Amino acid sequence: MHRPGLKIRFWTQAAATIGSNAYLAGLKTGSLYTGVLKHACVPTLNCYSCPAALFSCPIGAMQVTVAGAGGLDLTALHTIGARLTAISTSFPLLVIGFLALVGGLVGRAACGWVCPFGWFQELLHRIPSRKFVGPQILKYLKYLILLVFVFILPAFWLDEFDGGEPSFCKYLCPAGTLEGGIPLAWLQPALRSQLGWLFTWKMSLLALLLVASVFFKRPFCRWGCPLGAFYGPFNRVSVYKVSFDKAGCIECGACSRKCPVSLDVPREIDNAECLRCLECRDACPKHLISINRQARAFNSLTHDHGIKP
Amino acid sequence: MNDQIAQKSGQTSKTTIFVLLVALAMIIIGFRNGEHRSYFQKAVMVCTQCIGLG
Predict the structure, then answer these.
(1) Given CA atoms A149, A151, A152, A157 in this order, what sign does their dihedral have?
(2) CA-CA distance, A150 to A63, in Å (whole number)?
(3) Residues of B contacting chain A (CB within 8 angstroms)
(4) Which of A253, B2, B23, B49 has its CA 20 to 30 A from that of A98?
C-alpha cells in the first residue's frame, strides 16, 4: 500500500533530529553550543548537554527554574513555607506556557512528529523480533514521574547549599545519557575518569529501555516520558485533532496494528496517549480517520467572533 | 444530534482558545521575568546531572 504520510513523518522526524542537533563543532571537540538559540526550548525531549544541541530541553529548563527558586538568596529557605514562597516567584511560566501553546495547537503531535528520542525508539522497534503490547497500567507512571521528578523533588529536595537539582535529568532521563552522557564521556577523557555509580545506573536504564524498544512500541514515550504526560491532556482540547467515523468501521484492526503506541484505535483514537502521527489514517482501508474536525470548528468560532486564527 | 455535536465542538473550541490565550500570557510573563536567562546559564555548561556525573 502506498502510504505517503509515513514517509513524510519519517523525514520530518529525521529533519527535526538533525535540525535540533546541528552544532557539528561540538561533536568534534566535546564542547557545547553557547549561542543565543539556547535561550529557546525545543518542544521535545532533547538534552541540552548534547554536544550538538542547538536548543534547550523544556523538561531540563523546567527543573532548573524550579530548583533554582530563590536564586542566590540562600537565607530563610529552610522551611517549606519559605520554599513555597521562593518557588511562587520563580515558577517556570515561560516553559510551561510554551509547552501549553504547543499542546493547545497540536496536542501530542510533537511526540509523534519531531521527537528525536521517540524516533530512535521507533527505529529500534523495526528490528525483527516478537512484539508485545505491554501492561496498559504503566501509562500512568509518566504522570507520577512528571509530578515527582520534575516538580516536587527539584523544589523540595535541597542540597547543602539550599538549592534543588534536576532530579529527572539526574536519575532517570535516558535521552540525557544517550545524547549527553555517552558523547561527552567519549569526547572528554577528563570527564570519563570521574564517572561513577550514577553513570552506571543511567547507562543500565538506557540499555534496558533500548532493549525494550525492540519488543515494545515506544516504551519510554508510553510509560516514562514527563513531556508526554504534560502534552497528553491537551489532546482533548487541541486545535489539531484526529476524528474517526465509527459507523463505517469493519473492525479489521489495521489501524491498531500500525499505531506506534499500541492504542486500540477505534476506541482510543483521541485519548491522552495518541501521538497524532496519522499512521492509523494511512492504514485504514475505509478511510474513516481524518484530521481537523476540531480545527474546522475552531475556525468557524473564531470567524464568528471576528478573531483571525 | 448534530446540534449536540456542534455545541460540544463549540465548547471545546472555547476551551482551546482559553488554553492558547493563557499559554501566550504565561510566555509573555515568563519572558519578561527573564526566565530564559536562568536555564540558559545551565544549558551552556555541561550538566553534570544530565550526563550521569552527579
Answers:
(1) positive
(2) 6
(3) 6, 9-10, 12-17, 19-20, 22-31, 33, 35-40, 42-47, 49-54
(4) B49
Q: Which three cell numbers stand for residue A218?
A: 515506544
Rg for chain B, CA atoms, rounded: 20
* Cell 548537554, residue located: A49
Buried/exposed code over A261-281 (b: 16+ C-beta within 10 A; e: otherwise):
bbbebbebbbebbbbbbbbbb
* Cell numbers describing residue A136: 496498559
Average confidence score pLDDT of chain A:
88
- The Cα A163–Cα B6 span in angstroms is 50
Query: What ipTM goes with this model?
Result: 0.86
What DSSP state is assigned to residue A78? Answer: S
Q: What is the pLDDT of residues A132-187, one digit of tens each?
A: 999 989 999 999 999 999 999 988 887 766 678 899 999 999 999 999 999 999 99
| pLDDT score at A183 | 95
pLDDT of A50:
95
